[in-house]
């Protein structure tokens, strides 16, 4: 994962060659919702949180890499439907489930191709299968991976991208994210809560917010 890096301040540095193989095979399917750098930043947070929370890297890291590749199998209209403020709850759920299912199918092919240890594949794919729709957390690894996915929203790149794709002002988006990240049960790990606080404070300073 030391090549094909898009964002220099989120370097992906791991020694396991299997992770690099998964990354390289997944790369053509990444960031298909005008969110360049999403896969890299989520994987970076997954690596960091895995170390901080002492969970199984052989599950969290590939799950982070693969979690959103399913969007590549949907039409452009489907991929961007979740940003349409007129969408119904049913439409939102349907499209999220579809991208999760497609992610499982594509992720399985990639994991088999790199000869990933069989004992981890089902756990990885179970995380991918409901990372946007599951209530509660399936496992510690599921919690850490989904924390990493959510932390993208308060990263410099994720916050800027959400501003571009929405009608929110910086203050409105900050308030929305601050409320979500401070709500009980939104994040799984104490480490993610601390990282979120730091990132929100940086966005507050960066955009000169109240």
Total strand segments: 0
Q: Provide the CATH topology.
A: Hypothetical protein af1432
Oligomeric form of this entry? single chain
User: So, CATH architecture?
Assistant: Orthogonal Bundle
Q: Give the radius of gyration.
A: 16 Å
Following the backbone from N to C, one meets helices and strands in this order, namely HHHHHHHHHH
The fraction of residues assigned to DSSP E strands is under 5%
N/C terminus separation = 38 Å
Name of the CATH superfamily? Hypothetical protein af1432
Q: Overall 3D geometry?
A: globular
What does this structure look like?
Helix 1 (17-26) runs parallel beside helix 3, helix 2 (38-53) packs across helix 7 (140-151) and helix 5 (89-113) packs antiparallel against helix 6. The protein has helices at 17-26, 38-53, 57-66, 76-79, 89-113, 118-129, 140-151, 156-165, 170-182, 190-206. It is built from 10 helices and no strands. It has a single domain (17-206), classed as Hypothetical protein af1432. The radius of gyration is 16 Å and the shape is globular.
Brief description of this entry?
With 210 residues, the chain is mainly α. The chain has a single domain (17-206), classed as Hypothetical protein af1432 (Orthogonal Bundle), CATH 1.10.3210.
């Amino acid at each position: 994962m030391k090549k094909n890096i898009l964002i220099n301040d989120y370097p992906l540095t791991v020694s396991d060659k299997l992770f690099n193989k998964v990354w390289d095979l997944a790369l053509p399917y990444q960031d298909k919702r005008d969110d360049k750098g999403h896969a890299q930043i989520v994987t970076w947070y997954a690596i960091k949180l895995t170390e901080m929370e002492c969970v199984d890297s052989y599950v969290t890291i590939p799950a982070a890499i693969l979690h959103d590749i399913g969007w590549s199998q949907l039409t452009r209209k489907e991929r961007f439907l979740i940003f349409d403020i007129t969408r119904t709850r049913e439409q939102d759920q349907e499209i999220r489930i579809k991208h999760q299912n497609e992610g499982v199918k594509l992720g399985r092919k990639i994991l088999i191709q790199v000869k990933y240890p069989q004992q981890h594949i089902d756990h990885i794919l179970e995380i991918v299968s409901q990372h946007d729709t599951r209530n509660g957390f399936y496992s510690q690894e599921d919690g850490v991976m989904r924390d990493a996915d959510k932390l993208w929203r308060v990263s410099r790149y994720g916050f800027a991208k959400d501003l571009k794709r929405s009608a929110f002002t910086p203050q409105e988006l900050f308030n929305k994210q601050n409320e979500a990240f401070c709500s009980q049960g939104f994040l799984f790990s104490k480490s993610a809560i601390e990282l979120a606080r730091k990132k929100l404070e940086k966005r507050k300073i960066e955009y000169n917010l109240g």
